[in-house]
Amino acid sequence: MGIATRDSLRDWLRAPGSLSRRLARLGQRFEVQVLHQGVTPFRALERAALGLPPRGLTVVREVILRVDGEPLVWARSALHQRATTGPWRALKGLGTRPLAHLLYDDPHIHRSELQPRRLARQGHTRRHAERQWAEATGTAMSSQMLWSRHSVFSRGGAQLRVMELFAPELAGHRPGRLRR
Q1: How many Cα neighbours within 13 Å face the side chain of 39?
Q2: d(CA 175, CA 158)
Q3: What is the pLDDT of residue 47?
Q4: Of which family is this protein a member (predicted)?
Q5: What is the dihedral of CA 106, 155, 12, 113, to 10 degrees?
Q6: Tens digits of residue pLDDT in 86-99
Q7: For the residues 133-161, what does the mean pLDDT come to?
Q8: Cα–Cα distance, 128 to 84 (Å, whole number)
């Protein structure tokens, strides 16, 4: 994937606010397909982004965001396990509702700057996403699906990292503006 693909996804990589709300405007039916939610060991990037110690457990939620049945985004959210009994306890009961329901309706939640990132083709995150994508959709993830963004949401002293990996099909759509 060259620079042209990053340029074609630039608006999505930088779009503020709720990705779910932007995606929902692209079609008739928006859905969140939960792939996994559970406790796992920390990953280095998540640990660094969340300012966590070298050891511990993370609660992870991995989903595919679909519009009219078409999978367009693979997303992973992670937070320290202790935060699910405190500021982020509502994450446990989220189910198939978008994470946006928790993040954008609470004035006490603050978001870091969006950080675009190209995933390594053979990196752990990419390989993990490929496996889940294939199992959930019955098709292989596009080799061009390498551009992601991440940010950290803070509430009550606890952080939640969200990473979103974009399908190249989004390049043909504009994210548009959201009303507050």
Answers
A1: 7
A2: 29
A3: 85
A4: Belongs to the UbiC family.
A5: 130
A6: 888 888 888 999 99
A7: 94
A8: 24
Q: Which residues are registered as beta bridge partners of 80?
A: 58
Q: Count of alpha carbons within 13 Å of 97, Cβ hemisphere only?
A: 11
Backbone angles phi, psi at 139, to 5 degrees: -130, 155
Give the Cα separation of 23 and 46 in Å (integer): 25
Is it true that domain 3-172 has CATH number 3.40.1410.10? Answer: yes
**What does the pLDDT look like over 113-131, one tens digit per residue?**
999 999 998 999 999 999 9
Task: Consult the annotation and say whether 113 binds a ligand.
Answer: no
What pLDDT score was predicted for residue 151?
Answer: 96
- Containing H/E element for 36? strand 30-41
Query: Is 119 annotated as belonging to a binding site?
Result: no
Is 25 within any annotated ligand binding site? no
Residues 90 and 35: beta-carbon distance below 8 Å: no
* pLDDT per position as a tens digit, 23-56: 999 999 999 999 999 998 878 888 888 888 777 7
CA 131 vs CA 35, 96, 136, 152: distances in Å:
11, 20, 9, 25
CB 61 within 8 A of CB 77: yes
